[in-house]
Batch of 3 targets.
Target 1
Amino acid sequence: MKSSNNDLVSRGFLTEGEDLAFVNLTSSQKLELLKSSIPKERTLGARLAKGVGESAVSALIAALKVEKKLYPKIEICNTLVECGIIAVKPLIQQLGQIGSNQHKVLPKKEFEKDSYPLPRDIVARTLAHIGKDALPDLLKVLEENNLPELSEAIDAIGYICFYNHQPEVFEKLKSCYKSNAGNDLIRWKLVRAMSGFSESKEFLIQQRPICKNPIIEKEIDRSIRLINKRYYSTCVHSISQ
């Protein structure tokens, strides 16, 4: 069912190009729009912030913490992605802190698609879209003891590496798995992250018979299946060339 114009406006929708009339605002004026009581103006502020540079990052993150409307939230995240590497460290400090959609316990329902699930944490999702430039700082989180950050960082790392193979990352995931032997949620996420690494197959096969949690067992099976599928597709592609 299509949303009415009033619905779109109330959620902060801004058409493409509608921001062009405001590009000559000063940087401070652009960022001030992020605090507007009008959702559409907050979307405008987030879109205009793309040209502000490094000083926009903290303002955008502050806005993301309190934003409730759909389109300003989308635009804030899009702009943070465009900020790229300068946004990575400030975003990592917010992992697990914004919203309430993160996995707190193991899910009962399996993820049945062959793609990698988009992180539920909005900050992890933003870092995932920044891509491999975010990896060096995300990998540092694996060695720390901040569980909310760790839990969401794994999702971002897994997503990035599933679509941009980084073989050297597997050993770091493996080490983290061993360091969190008593935390089923973290182990489950790490097993999922390993689905993007052919290097992890032997380790996953070893873990399968000693894993006592049926949900993690199913995730191990899924990761092995995805690794096998990717390997088969690569072989077929090579033969056909």
Note: The chain has two domains: 5-84, 122-240.
Target 2
Amino acid sequence: MNIGDKAPEVLGKDENGKDIRLSDYKGRRLVLYFYPKDNTSGCTAEACSLRDRYEELQASGYEVVGVSKDSAASHQKFKEKHALPFPLIADVDKTLIEAMGVWGEKMMCGKKSMGTIRTTFIIGEDGTIEQIYAGKQVKTKEHATQILGK
């Protein structure tokens, strides 16, 4: 997916099995962020950054949805442990991850493997992608600040 592309309508099911659709956020900008794994240091820092400034993000017209290939049960524990106020899509079959083009080769500790590339899409009120933060562009500890531009 690239800037100007239309995001998919069906995003997936959240940690409670509820369908999440792009149209659920009509009239708002959506921060759709993809992360590798629940309860890892970088992913926790990113989620907590978005949590800590969630009200400010909402006041600026944004909603937040996280996505990883972890199970709904894993997401529930992650949300509870860190008091995350936004939904987490359990994309266990990687449907959305692959549709958005964020599954790919990664290098970790000198070893290549396939996985989710940390990526955030800012989707406009009309459903088109306005901005993309990918890989090392994502500053996990201050990701909300990046999005807000402050």
Note: The chain has one domain: 10-148.
Target 3
Amino acid sequence: MAANHPEHQYLDLLRILLERGAERVDRTGVGTRAIFGHQMRFDLAAGFPLLTTKRVFHKPAIHELIWFLSGSTRLRPLLANGVRIWTDWPLARYRKETGDAIEQAEFERRLLEDDAFDAKWGDLGPVYGKQWRAWEAKDGRVVDQLSQLVQSIRTNPTSRRLLFTGWNVGELERMALPPCHMTYQYFVADGRLSGILYQRSADTFLGLPWNLCEAALLIHMLAQQCDLEPGELVWMGADVHLYLNHQEQARVQLSREPRPFPTLRLLRRPDSLFDYRFEDFEISGYDPHPHIKADVAV
């Protein structure tokens, strides 16, 4: 694959972190190698930015994005679709508050089957979907940022206010995890919709591949809803880090050559941004290198 393959931007970032990242103690206690400030750009007309130097499990990412767009803060809808990446935080809270060393699988089973247990332990606090769809203003209004965004793109496409954010400072302490991919902004030109994702904190090995996938998906969806073509995804990271227990995995990934990006097709145009279903997305031509296992730092 040619050296100008867009995935080399990601591989270069891994290399920078391994070679020049500052070693830091972090919230999780695992430790990271980190840099401050980085940017990547992906032209969505040239392919869908799903990394190929390791398999990225994009189906759970689609389910998670649909969950964000629904405004839900409950873990149960994710578990019902086999998405387990959010379990660590409520599970840690349950173990700390009860002293019960319950296994993750049993905790998830009880959330799915026991309504009372789910009511007590299955809420993640006012995380992404709550802020995107139901930001509570001081005067009592509830603001649906995404509905406003769609309307603004359609009616005022040159606005410099085509954005939404999850960083609600008044509710951060109640969130299972404050938003890492925190602010999205959009730009319309020449019939194309481009988007920037500003990420305050980026787990480069595990989280960032999902963040790129979901941000690109959202551009495609917004473009379809607003009669535009997908443009460019610009990713901007602030605290960009590689966990110390992901270094060997990163070296394995760096030994691989990128393969052609897949293509994304939306099989249906729903009535609104909030009516997409999992089966509306078709990703074809995805031929990645094998998955590389790594543990999440909680």
Note: The mean pLDDT is 96.
